[in-house]
Design a protein that fits this description.
By secondary structure, the protein is of the alpha+beta class. It has helices at residues 2-9, 16-49, 66-95, 201-210, 220-230, 269-277, 300-312; strands at 102-109, 112-116, 122-124, 126-130, 134-141, 146-150, 155-159, 165-170, 175-180, 193-199, 256-258, 264-266. The strands form four sheets. A five-stranded mixed beta sheet has the order 3-2-1-5-8, with no helix packed on it. Helix 2 (16-49) packs antiparallel against helix 3 and helix 5 packs across helix 7 (300-312). The longest helix has 34 residues, at 16-49. The structure holds heme C and copper (II) ion (CU).
């Protein structure tokens, strides 16, 4: 019964924490259902039973009823205390990562999530983690407030500039779990998504060694198309000619582009490379310098692929 009701409106519980959060949630839900039926039922019953039936009919004068009054005071008090201590306990457990948890650095910036691993590798848009291991996330923002939310794990934590916040989880099922940003952070907020890839320990180690398996064996143009979405370029750049936060990529290859400082550049391999690694160096006329730098965050192969992809967008 409980599982059925839960599955009706909650995503499947894929972490240890999710289970305890859901248990408490279901307890409160049932409490509410029972009391709703009780109160609404009695209201209707009393309406019928004590309805005034003739002009001079009067209800008996009622003073008080000690047992009844004690019951409706003490019983809710006990229930509130149960919910409080249960909730407090769950909250404390949710806040403190267990000893020996693997640590991953999370960086938020408009409008991408990037993840730094213990071995120094960085992944954008995908958080690869091994199943059945506690993972502690140390998070900060490079610009405004963002919030890290994984509905499947029942964790949500604000990510702030100038200080670290943390959260942790222990995934129990292999699979993909969406991370939507849940703090309004500007024009690209609704597109600020990443995904947790929960994989086996073996696959996790393979990812650390060889990079994203989804990107392997793809020809550069295809890989570029995948990266366009995964690295968050698509939040600002269109490929059909419409102007977004940034210029569209359609047909830009080998065009002359004017910058805000009056200089002009030919769009070629080097121009695109610099645009991606040091976007502040050349700002296209008519746009603001809001593009994040991808320096140190993407591999050479990925750069080449993005260039090939942009080149192909005639
Ligand atoms: C937050 C929004 C944003 C994101 C994300 C973003 N860009 Fe940009 N990009 C811009 C803006 C704005 C400009 C124009 C201003 C400038 O040149 O810095 C630009 C300019 C460019 C240009 C030069 C385009 C031209 O017409 O001359 C290239 C190439 C480029 N970006 C590639 C990328 C790639 C590749 C990615 C993903 C890996 C990416 N951008 C992600 C906002 C973004
Ligand atoms: Cu955000």
């Amino acid at each position: 019964m409980n599982t059925w009701l839960r599955d009706l409106f909650l995503p499947s519980a894929a972490s240890i924490k999710a289970q305890s959060v859901d248990d408490l949630f279901m307890f409160i839900l049932w409490l509410n259902i029972i009391f709703f039926i009780l109160i609404a039922g009695l209201t209707i019953l009393f309406c019928i039973q004590y309805k005034r039936r003739s002009a001079n009919q009067k209800t008996a004068h009622i003073e008080h009823h000690t047992v009844l009054e004690l019951t409706w005071t003490v019983l809710p008090l006990i229930l509130c205390l149960i919910v409080f201590f249960w909730g407090f306990n769950t909250y404390m457990q949710a806040g403190v990562a267990p000893d020996g948890a693997m640590e991953i650095q999370v960086t938020a910036k408009k409008w991408i999530w990037s993840f730094g691993y213990p071995d120094g590798s960085v992944a954008i848009g995908k958080l690869w983690v091994p199943v059945n291991k506690p993972v502690r996330l140390i998070m900060h923002s490079e610009d405004v407030l963002h919030a890290f939310f994984v509905p499947g794990f029942r964790i949500k934590q604000d990510v702030l500039p100038n200080r670290y916040t943390e959260t942790w989880f222990h995934a129990t099922q292999v699979g993909d779990y969406v991370i939507p940003c849940t703090e309004y952070c500007g024009k690209g907020h609704s597109e600020m998504k990443a995904v947790v890839k929960v994989v086996s320990q073996q696959d996790y180690e393979k990812f650390l060694e060889e990079g994203d398996p989804d990107e392997k064996g793809l020809p550069p143009e295809k890989l570029g198309a995948t990266l366009y979405v995964n690295l968050g370029c698509s939040t600002c750049h269109s490929i059909d000619g419409t102007k977004g936060q940034g210029p569209s990529w359609k047909g830009i290859w080998s065009a002359q582009h004017k910058m805000v400082d009056g200089k002009s550049f030919l769009v070629d391999e080097n121009y695109i490379r610099t645009s991606i690694l040091q976007p502040q160096q050349m700002i296209v006329e008519g746009f603001e310098g809001i593009m994040p730098s991808y320096q140190g965050q993407i591999r050479e192969r990925q750069l080449v692929a993005l260039i090939a992809y942009i080149k192909s967008l005639k």
